[in-house]
Structure to design on (475 residues):
């Protein structure tokens, strides 16, 4: 029988490891909720303050914030670290806690440097001192991105460790729904804490309020990370009964992990599938609000609500797919269905433009979100399956890298293709429609790649690669 130390578990003890129940799934989702809150805080509030209140050019502000994506390759390293080096006796939990604490501290420090950038820019213009403060701010955002990777990659790997194939889709549906819910809660908290600020409030008042905000919300996020993961790995992790390298994990070096990662052709296929899927889901991000303004004559406040329709649809899609579609249709079929319906809904977004009716646009975005949630749940469930127990963190890091890089490319290319569309035609519906149609093509490409995905081939190849490493290098 199992003792209190999971490292002594044997395969026959597997039935004694309890399954995560719904309450535990929601508890795990608290970490995702915290990440959602930090996303709104960092990319919503700071982006606006940098550009509007401090006068930093939008291009520079966007590049500074985008550095959090540019450090995405570190996800593979953090994943490999959590595979091979325990912290406080556990593979995942310690990394989650350290990462959460680091992002809280770094975000507060970044705000303090941001005020120095604004002050120097106001008094000296773009002087050497201003550039130095800006470079330090960029560095801090890079560290912030590393902190997010250090916590989120081991956390996602923890979801692999504690779940089984029969409950994984429910866990994905709940946890990623709570990620979106976190963005909503973050927006509400920010609104409450900053409600005293007027549009033209003096910078000193803004500084005081934001400093308070970046003390309170990150502290809440750290608390949620602790509450979410405390005792979970010890009680529910199946790592010790799945891995053939228990107590030998440190021998899987980064080089060896990389050889296991790239041993299967399926790794390349699935990586490319995730890139295509992410492009299909996010290329509209930089042009959605302008689309509502230019084509539908919507006011600024009204266009800001467009993402809410997409978000509400996504929440329903995630939960519906996690509890109903994936268990009944299977992961691949549910993902394929979601991708095809996303392509159809994007055509609806384009066609609504010819009507100039904002209500039709909102309905189209609601369905776009719904079907995106279905595709996302199926793909994420597949992603958690596309791992090997001994190098699960490395695989999760690679999949996270594909999504982060593709999201960055999607954000840049969405604006670039819209500009190309304006050069090709004076019809704004067609110019914006070019972006949405390219998303449709990305989704169809994702379906084609999904048809080539073979989880059994991947598992066989990965198993053989790990066996080779064990036999030839670890003895």
């Amino acid at each position: 029988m199992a003792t209190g130390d999971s490292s002594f578990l044997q395969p026959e003890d597997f039935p004694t490891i309890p399954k995560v129940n719904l309450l535990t799934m929601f508890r795990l989702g608290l970490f995702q909720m915290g990440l959602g809150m930090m996303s709104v805080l960092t990319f919503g509030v700071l982006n606006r303050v940098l550009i509007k209140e401090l006068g930093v050019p939008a291009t520079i502000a966007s590049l500074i914030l985008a550095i959090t994506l540019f450090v995405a390759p570190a996800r593979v390293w953090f994943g490999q670290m959590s595979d091979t080096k325990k912290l406080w006796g556990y593979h995942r939990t310690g990394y989650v806690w350290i990462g959460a604490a680091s992002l809280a501290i770094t975000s507060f420090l970044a705000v303090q440097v941001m005020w120095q950038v604004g002050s120097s820019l106001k008094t000296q213009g773009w002087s050497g001192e201003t550039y130095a403060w800006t470079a330090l701010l960029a560095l801090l955002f890079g560290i912030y991105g590393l902190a997010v990777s250090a916590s989120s990659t081991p956390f996602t790997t923890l979801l692999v460790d504690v779940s089984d194939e029969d409950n994984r889709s429910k866990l994905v549906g709940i946890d990623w729904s709570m990620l979106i819910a976190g963005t909503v809660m973050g927006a509400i908290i920010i609104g409450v804490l900053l409600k005293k600020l007027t549009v033209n409030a003096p910078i000193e008042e803004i500084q005081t309020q934001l400093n308070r905000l970046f003390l309170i919300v990150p502290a809440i996020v750290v608390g949620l990370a602790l509450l979410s993961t405390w005792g979970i790995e010890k009680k529910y992790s199946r790592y010790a009964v799945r891995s053939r390298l228990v107590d030998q994990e440190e021998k899987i070096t980064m080089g060896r992990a990389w050889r296991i990662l790239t041993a299967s052709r399926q790794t390349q296929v699935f990586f490319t599938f995730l890139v295509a899927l992410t492009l299909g889901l996010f290329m509209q991000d930089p042009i959605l609000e302008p689309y509502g303004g230019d084509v539908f004559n919507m006011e600024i406040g009204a266009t800001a609500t467009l993402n809410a329709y997409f978000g509400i649809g996504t929440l329903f899609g995630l939960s519906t797919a996690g509890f109903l579609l994936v268990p009944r249709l299977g992961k691949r079929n549910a993902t394929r269905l979601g991708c095809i319906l996303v392509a159809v809904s994007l055509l609806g977004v384009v066609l609504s433009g010819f009507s100039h009716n904002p209500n039709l646009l909102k309905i189209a975005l609601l369905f776009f979100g719904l079907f995106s949630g279905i595709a996302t749940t199926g793909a994420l469930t597949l992603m958690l399956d596309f791992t090997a127990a001994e190098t699960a963190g490395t695989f999760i890091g690679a999949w996270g890298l594909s999504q982060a890089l593709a999201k960055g490319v999607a954000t840049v290319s969405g604006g670039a293709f819209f500009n190309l569309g304006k050069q090709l035609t004076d019809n704004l519906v067609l110019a914006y429609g070019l972006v949405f149609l390219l998303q449709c093509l990305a989704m169809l490409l994702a379906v084609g790649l999904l048809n080539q995905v073979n989880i059994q081939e991947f598992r066989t190849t990965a198993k053989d690669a790990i066996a080779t490493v064990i036999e030839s290098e670890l003895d």
